[in-house]
Amino acid sequence: MINNFKHLTIPFYIIVVFTLWYLQSELYINAIFYKVAIIYFFYVLWRETEPLFSTLKVNPSFKKKLVFGVKMFWASLFFLALYIFIFPQVSVLINSKQKYAAAKHNNEIQWHSAKEPAFKQARAENKPLIIEFFADWCMPCRQMEINTFSDQNVQSMIGQNYIPLKVDATQPNKLSNHMMRTFRVNAFPSIILLDQQQNKQKRLTGYIDAYQLKKALQSFLEQNYLEY
Q1: So what's the pLDDT on residue 164?
Q2: Which of 2, 44, 49, 87 is least enclosed, having the fewest CB within 10 Å?
Q3: d(CA 133, CA 189)
Q4: Mapped to the 3 state alphabet, what secondary structure does the chain carry?
């Protein structure tokens, strides 16, 4: 019976990968789960290559070469996925304080730091707000600044279509406490997309990459601003 279940290993991991892809794409959960699932899936394919080819009735010498070639293919994809998905995450941890400071300095988004001017501008220009709750000691917040908000497409999308407001909770103050209570924020980073009348909002919690954020920004505009 155990051997019968082994045949379901690969279909099971395919379902897991596609499920996590859907969740990170549509619900904007942290993409790292999806990326780790892909990496592990390539490992499973590498590990299961020999059992899958064990019943193949061909010349033993040819089968050995075929299995070796297929395993090398999956191993190559495994290490390529590590390089593409994990290396950028790890690199943020190296000298993150300096990279974070540089990313904040070079960021072209004109963030407001006070609530009233941002809300007033949003009403005057009929634009939605993007409100980011962050803290300097928060590593995912640093990742967002270094990897996500530094993306030119994200900066362009926000600059043209949103009024941006940053709420700094590094050292809690009257503004951060009030805003966190108002929007029920209890984790960093948190992003609130809010229409200028404060009637509709979308919440994004935790680290998300540039692609996810751009998609969320576009979706909010399309759903609430028909002229977009």
Answers
A1: 96
A2: 2
A3: 6
A4: CHHHHHCCHHHHHHHHHHHHHHHHHHCCCCCHHHHHHHHHHHHHHHHHHHHHHCCCCCCHHHHHHHHHHHHHHHHHHHHHHHHHHHHHHHHHHCCHHHHHHHHHHHCCCCCECCHHHHHHHHHHHCCCEEEEEECCCCHHHHHHHHHHCCCHHHHHHHHHHCEEEEEECCCCCHHHHHHHHHCCCCCCCEEEEECCCCCCEEEEECCCCHHHHHHHHHHHHHHHCCCC
Tell me the pTM: 0.64
Structure tokens at 160: 């043209």
Q: How confident is the model at residue 22 (pLDDT cuts 50, 70, 90)?
A: low
Residue 211 predicted with pLDDT over 80? yes
CA distance 164 to 111: 5
